[in-house]
């Protein structure tokens, strides 16, 4: 299983620091686990392959292109800094 851990500063609270861990087995397109932490609390979830396909279809986006954008937003880290915004609600 592969994992990445990135520090994010959400646009909804720019002074806050969160940590985003994403873990996957084959590739992000087959589903992944996610942990978001503010250093005191942690929230976990999973995203299934079917949910990824459904979201890509809802956005009228090619599934592979959608998975590539997920990779850039969730696991690319410093390479994508400033290109993606996160909002915590």
From TrEMBL:
Q: Where in the cell is it found?
A: Nucleus
**Which Gene3D superfamilies does the entry link to?**
DNA double-strand break repair and VJ recombination XRCC4, N-terminal
Which superkingdom, per the lineage? Eukaryota
Annotated GO biological process: double-strand break repair via nonhomologous end joining; immunoglobulin V(D)J recombination; response to X-ray
Assigned keywords, A-Z: DNA damage, DNA repair, Nucleus
Q: Which Pfam families match?
A: XRCC4 (PF06632)
SUPFAM superfamilies hit by this protein: XRCC4, N-terminal domain (SSF50809)
Is Heme given among the entry's keywords?
no
* Keyword Aminoacyl-tRNA synthetase listed: no
Cellular component aspect of the GO annotation: DNA ligase IV complex; DNA-dependent protein kinase-DNA ligase 4 complex
Span of domain XRCC4 N-terminal? 17-88
Please list the GO terms describing molecular function: DNA binding
From the Swiss-Prot or TrEMBL record, give the protein name: XRCC4 protein
Taxonomic lineage of this organism?
A: Eukaryota, Metazoa, Chordata, Craniata, Vertebrata
